[in-house]
Amino acid sequence: MDNPDVELDLQRSVQAVLRELNAQTPALQSNQGMWRWSLHKKVERDPGKRPVLVRILLRELEKAEREDARHVIMPLLHTLMYVFTKATGITEELHRRTYAFCMRSLTLPAPYCTVALDCAIRLKTEAAVPGTLYQRLVIAEQNLTSELYPYQERVFLFVDPELVSPSVCSALLLEIQAAQEQQTPEACMRHVVSHALQAALGEACHAGTLQRKLQASPRLVLERYFHAVVAAVEQMASEPSPSREGHLERLEEIYCSLLGPAAAARGRCGGKRLLLPSGDPLQDQLPSIPLPSPHITFHLWTDEDQLWKELVLFLRPRSQLRLSADLEALDLQGVPPDRESARTSVLSTDSGIERDLPSGADELPSTGSPEMERAGLQRKGGIKKRVWPPDILMPSSWDGPPGLHRRTGRPSGDGELLPGVSRLHTARVLVLGDDRMLGRLARAYYAIRKRETQKFCLTPRLSLQLYYIPVLAPEKPAASRHLELGELATFLGRADPWYENTINTLCPAIHKLAEMPLSLNTSRTIDPFILDVITYYIRMGTQPIYFQIYTVKIFFSDLSQDPAEDIFLTELKVKIQDSKIPRDGFSPRRRGVAEGPGAELSICYQKALLSHRVREVTVSLRATGLVLKTLAASDNDVSGPTYCPPAAAPVTDHRCLNVSVTEVVKTSNLAGRSFSTVTNSFRTASIQIQSQDQRLLTLSLDKDGRRTFRDVVRFEVAPCLEPCSGAQKSKVLISHRQEMERTKAKAKPLLMPINTFSGIIQ
Fold this sequence. Notes:
Elements: H1 4-21, H2 26-29, H3 34-45, H4 50-67, H5 73-86, H6 92-104, H7 112-128, H8 132-141, E1 152-159, H9 166-180, H10 185-201, H11 207-216, H12 219-238, H13 244-259, H14 261-266, E2 296-300, H15 306-315, H16 323-328, E3 343-347, H17 370-377, E4 383-387, H18 390-393, E5 416-418, E6 421-422, E7 425-433, H19 435-455, E8 462-470, H20 478-485, H21 487-495, H22 497-502, H23 506-515, H24 529-540, E9 543-548, E10 550-556, E11 564-568, E12 571-580, E13 599-607, E14 616-629, E15 657-669, E16 672-691, E17 695-701, E18 708-719, E19 728-734, E20 738-744, E21 751-756
Parallel strand pairs: 1-2, 1-7, 7-8
Antiparallel strand pairs: 3-4, 5-6, 9-21, 10-11, 10-18, 12-14, 12-17, 13-14, 13-16, 14-15, 15-16, 16-18, 17-18, 19-20
Helix pairs in contact: 1-3, 1-4, 4-5, 4-6, 5-7, 6-7, 8-10, 9-23, 10-11, 10-12, 10-13, 12-13
Organism: Camelus ferus
GO molecular function: 1-phosphatidylinositol-3-kinase regulator activity
GO cellular component, one term: phosphatidylinositol 3-kinase complex, class IB
């Protein structure tokens, strides 16, 4: 399509998207995100515009490269790849130029090079076998059965009914139900077949006739053609050097078999290009092949273990066997029983007395002899147990590399954790709410990690991805409430401008949608904006930002009450109670002594230094309260306590707590004594606080009134560690005698990843 008016219209839309990235005025900021959505809708209604849009986006990317305008590279690249996934008829020249741009971007720092590498891998697969990205996306998201591509994905949307209004819940549920009623398995299979044939055959594919034929085909016939197309595409994509001609001939045979004699009458099938009559009016406007939204399940989070239960149920339909029985067979699936992967521990029954040793025991064979190997592997009278090493029991990162299988173009072996065990399932957990909801998510994430050290149920099979959309209650004043309960969303917006532009602006739109009257006819829902943005976020948000979880141990005034342990993600707030601990004896206060507000606190912490040296600091002061925050307060601290490069292992050397203490300052003058307050701030990795004058404390975690602890006299805060980080490793040393020594594994911090589009942009 070379219509100048079409190109000018798309160019204006792209420029509008770029302008709002630099928008500083509230009038423009109020409509952020709408231009990107309307741009995608234009090409969805007219698929012939997609090659024009690809050319415009690529031209803007090359311009940004020349001018070193890096702030627009990520939005343009994500928009371009989203169009590539849906498009057909993209020329080889556009594929080559886009791939060359991604390869040149590998010289840029992270996260630019990380995203560019992911895009380059996907582009290479799509250029070799057109339609692969679309096909794999639909198969995984809609859980269609395919032997050659068995991956499954599901989006779990969690909403806390106590934090989000019922009207918002109803509006979201209405959009999800209206979209999924039109996304039957038969419709999705028709989309896959149509897209694959149209992407491979191009203008030779009579798209209108093809779609009508598929619409009239019964389910059994449709399934047969669906599996044939999937087999053709996947087998070609798995070859190291795929042949375009062979792939084209195979799909032409499927196309001719599907359309029957009508297709053969237009041209010869079986290796030659299919020709259509000139001036066919049905070819002037290509029919739109929609990309169905992911399979989303809506959940009201009312149970603490609800996330765990839903993840287990997600794995269960794949097999009718019990999960425990299925996972007990892990050591039968190719795991070698050597010392490196799985050791056999032996519980000895001998006495250990020297005289009880067999004769000739002082003449030990050499280390490498067969006798020594048999002596090390076989011992009579012992009980043998299979013991997994700690590094297999729980991997250091559960989420794994972003994209895993379908986004990298390698359908097999890409998501393996153990030999013979592949992560075929991807759970994308999306939570809506404020910082209180994220605190609840952190507790559930920690509980799952802790449970996995005992049952080892989800980790080998599941890739867990976490997403967050801020939804704040529309209460007055809105600005102060956003600053109070939306700190993590603000942090994500500063770290990733495309997240700020696309996701953080959803909150007003969600409330506007909730205020609209409900439609009784769900099929009339047209262009669901909220669902489309959620879908875009789920598909393109592959770069995580890691947040350190902190643990707190709480001691109460009642000595008979056991200490409590909990975790928090964003904030721990301490208030001074008016009540005191009751004393056995009575000591009257001296007259004229003014105690003053607040309480005497003893604070012991490790000061955070750039040299990473440990420096203990102990102070005593009178304070009316203090706040411990885990997030940076300004743009200059974006890469501080939570930053982790997406391309590397988590780096947490700079993690720290930001502590603000409201100290009471006593002054004396002729009028008497007066008290004033001053706020002191410092950074620390861990801290211990105790009340010195029997004044009790109240602790609130993650701004959630449901997570409040009263009558506290002391508490300790430290970074939360992986539940298995203290596991013991057994190491066998064979010399003149056999001895066992246990060494403690190095502690690893527990980081919770939240996916964004780009990670943290410096």
